[in-house]
Design goal:
CATH architecture of one domain: Sandwich
Number of helices: 4
Structural class: mainly beta
CATH topology of one domain: Immunoglobulin-like
Radius of gyration: 28 Å
Strand order of the largest sheet: 26-25-24-23-27-28-29-30
Low-confidence stretches: 21-33, 35-40, 473-496
């Protein structure tokens, strides 16, 4: 009996000596790799999330029994294949490069359904859809006159005429219109019986549209017109190197408010101007607080040259973009010139400091969040990556799902492109739209709105984000304080 007790004691002691260190190593992220060359290896982990959540996770063809969102732990360093599967959705595959003691993040994966959920929204057909980004509504038009325009509120699903039936402007023909992102009013330039065009500033955000006639404040051809999203009572017009300030509230005009300028931009109630001598300034609307952002005319000349007028697009206080009349894309960040010609539009995603760029045949992105500036002979600046180069006539692009995907309209088709791509771009065609019409995507509703060609132009929606996911995205965005986020972006310039 004593001998048996001794045997059991030594067996348990041996197990303790062997298993206890292995358990401690495992707890600290180490595992013992079997084989001819046994060794203790530091492991990594993989975090996986998707929309919709609940997708089964396979690692190297083995079921992990976990569902998204989940963290896979104790993963050996090296390449691993992650597979996500879910009923009614296409499988998603990614080759993850796991590093020791580092998390590999595979998040915001938008699973593609075998059949997109599409819904008709109107009985009437329309000729075009006019987006007003940053607002819970857009315009729909049937003809060329103001009476042919309607407002569709995608938040409550209502459709109503832009102006009332007894309005004096019912018979006015629309010559052009101007919108500003995140601003509710629309500036219409109309043709009436008079010789001079009529200018109406219409705000459709209320139940009854607010209409202001500002014809007396503008010339027949005022040039480019813009205003700050937070203050539509002060308009700036740019023509021939002169900028006029139009005070809508007081019905006053300040001609040649700024002179000798090549470019104009507005951001957070400040004016950005590029002078004829290629110096760049920033100032308040009242010309106070003037800052010289570029005081070297020679450097300015090498960047801007004689490219004519420029559109200034301040993304944040530290990121300023410029687009020339030929579509050349410039920036205040090295290497200053990013695209030589053909840029049609940009859209900034502030959370990641990513800039979406599109031309007729391609879509690219600039990452301003990581810039090399220490211990390098030549600073590289943001890297331009072309995500898609097979376009025919790309004319609209939208960020989707927290900036992880890109929706774009090419000719009459709308497709989805994975931005993060994880070294492989997933391109999915979604719907066809009516020729010569625009589409609109709302991150808040998670839906794409478009005119369906098979029904003659009725308004339809296709749900891009799963129901409920769009609400979460909106709530997260609403909780962020814009000024706090701006301050964080200005301070958080990562350096390698």
């Amino acid at each position: 009996m004593l001998f048996l007790r001794k045997v059991l004691f030594y067996i348990f002691l041996l197990l303790y000596v062997v298993i206890c260190p292995l358990a401690i190593l495992y707890a600290f992220g180490f595992i013992l790799t079997p084989g001819q060359e046994e060794s203790v290896v530091k492991t990594g982990l993989i975090y996986v999330s998707s929309a919709p959540s609940g997708a089964a996770i396979y690692l190297d063809a083995k079921d992990t029994t976990q569902k998204t969102p989940a963290t896979l732990q104790q993963i050996l360093p090296g390449k691993h294949t992650v597979l996500l599967t879910m009923k009614d959705y296409k499988p998603w595959v990614y080759s993850a490069d796991v590093k020791a003691n580092e998390p590999t993040v595979v998040d915001n994966i938008l699973l593609i359904p075998y059949q997109w959920p599409i819904s008709p929204l109107t009985d009437d057909a329309f000729s075009d859809l006019i987006p007003i980004p940053g607002n819970p509504y857009f315009l729909l038009k049937k003809g060329d006159f103001l009476k042919d325009y309607s407002v569709y509120n995608w938040k409550n699903g209502t459709l109503q005429p832009l102006i009332e039936e007894d309005s004096l402007y019912q018979g006015a023909k629309v010559l052009s219109y101007t919108t500003v992102e995140n601003s509710s009013p629309i500036l219409f330039r109309l043709k009436t019986k008079g010789a001079k065009p009529l200018f109406l500033l219409i705000d459709p955000s209320a139940d009854k549209a607010v209409i202001e006639d500002i014809t007396s404040l503008l010339s027949a051809d005022p040039g480019r017109i813009t205003w700050d999203p937070k203050d539509a009572t002060q308009l700036f017009t740019l023509k021939g190197g002169n900028c006029n300030l139009v005070d809508v509230k007081n019905m006053a005009v300040y001609p040649k408010y700024l002179q000798g300028i090549r470019g104009l931009g507005l951001y957070q109630k400040q004016i950005y101007i590029l002078k004829d001598d290629n110096r760049l300034f920033r100032m308040n609307f009242d010309k106070g607080g003037k800052e010289e952002l570029l005081d070297d005319p020679d450097l300015g000349s090498s960047i801007f040259g004689d490219k004519g007028k420029l559109l200034i697009l301040p993304m944040t206080k530290r990121i300023i973009m410029f687009i020339t009349e030929d579509g050349e894309l410039l920036s205040n960040h090295l290497p200053y010139v990013f695209v030589r010609e053909g840029v049609l539009g940009t859209e900034f995603y502030p959370d990641d400091e990513y800039l979406l760029i599109w031309a007729k045949d391609r879509i690219g992105s600039l990452d301003f969040s990581v810039e090399e500036a220490e211990d390098v002979t030549f600073e590289k600046g943001p890297r331009l990556m072309w995500r898609y180069t097979g376009g025919k006539n790309i004319n609209q692009c939208f960020w989707a799902y927290d900036g992880s995907s890109i929706l774009f309209k090419d000719n009459e088709g709308v497709s989805l492109l994975e931005r993060k791509a994880f070294k492989k771009s997933y391109l999915t065609q979604i719907v066809k739209v009516k020729p010569h019409s625009s589409a609109y995507y709302s991150e808040d509703s998670g839906a794409l709105y478009y005119l369906d060609p098979s029904s003659g132009g009725r308004l339809y929606s296709v749900q891009i984000l799963p129901q409920g996911r769009a609400l979460i995205v909106t709530e997260q965005k609403d909780k962020k304080d814009p000024e706090e986020k701006q301050e964080k972006q200005e301070k958080q310039v990562k350096r390698k």
